[in-house]
## 1
Amino acid sequence: MNDVKNILLVGVGGQGTILASKVLSEGLVEAGYDVKMSEIHGMSQRGGNVSTQIRYGKKVYSPIVGKGEADVIVAFEKMEALRWIEYLKRDGKMVINDFEIPSVPILMGQVEYPEGILEELSENASVLVVKAAEIAEQLGNSKVMNIVLLGALVKAMNVEGVNWKRTIENNVKKGFEELNLKAFDEGYKL
């Protein structure tokens, strides 16, 4: 039996998708899994999409997650969830940040931001909607919404044997450890 699990984290440049992936990957290694991670930066410096693919299990040979293979997709932005849904397994789950970042064509008035994304995705998949931006704002810094989402994901995955506090402290910017730990705890409570 194939014990390998597949996770996609997708978002827009600047949302901290890669940091969340690195923390998750380190935690999974600490839990004893073989882990492979792949990052794709599509014009991320200019607000383009960013995705990371994480595969973990007893033995993993490739970091690439194919269409229809993701056990979990964590979308840091709603439109990215829509863009990546074809990678989700039939019985997979989506964790979606209820947050919008308008693309350049939307900002230029060429197209409208799509309406009803969460409703459409909920009809086609098992979806957990998280208001990570609101939680991060309540903590005093919108930049920690990635760690809020990470906390929600870790809780859903039920990975044991990991010192998430240490893993987060080792990866976040010095001076922001406590804020990120609070963000993780808030996401974990979800």
## 2
Amino acid sequence: MTNIDEYGGGQRPSDSVLVVTTNDVPGHRVERVIGEVFGLTVRSRHLGSQIGAGLKSLMGGELRGLTKTLVESRNQAMERLVEHTKARGGNAVLMMRFDVTEAADVGTEVCAYGTAAVIAPVD
């Protein structure tokens, strides 16, 4: 059984910024568009995990250590996205996306980005 805290992510119920991958939020109106916001992290690869991943790739199967590292990176990027949104006065991020790239062959760059906005419930 997979532990959702180790291999999952996303928002917690206590988050004060709603993050969605859609253009709008049902039951809400966009009062103000603030603009682009992002959260970025770059993680280096641990030598031990690289060796383990290399051996595992010969036999096939999930690379659990690398999966956990990527989940942690995505969650950290998401936390930074939310902080950036709050700092700019937003309470929502619309059209959120992740971008993952290799960073100079030493690590992985994870960027969460979207459009910060102020939303309010429809009366």
## 3
Amino acid sequence: MRRARPASRREPTIALINIVFLMLVFFMVAGTLTQPLDRDLRLVDTAELDGRAPVDGLVLHADGRMSHGGAALASAADYLAALESDAPGTVRVIPDRALPAGVLVAVARELRAGGAERVLIVTERALP
């Protein structure tokens, strides 16, 4: 009589593969919920500020160009006209790090003159 071999025990790799696949799908979906900013835009560094996620705002490039939602704008008044509300309360400006401060101040003044109650500047939070 032959002796029965003990059955080899398999590792549960299928369950591990399923979990990794579900995590991959989750991160793919979670990473595409917001519209990405322009690739050549580098945000200003700041430290110790209450940060918020960059929302739909006026993007100011280093060369003075303006864009909103990927579309080029000629002036800050065009951005205010593109907003859905009749009287914009808070307006967010997303400047490039290399943008001259004078241009940023001029655009902020133009937004205030156009009816914006508050002009917030979106920056990158610096790590300690």
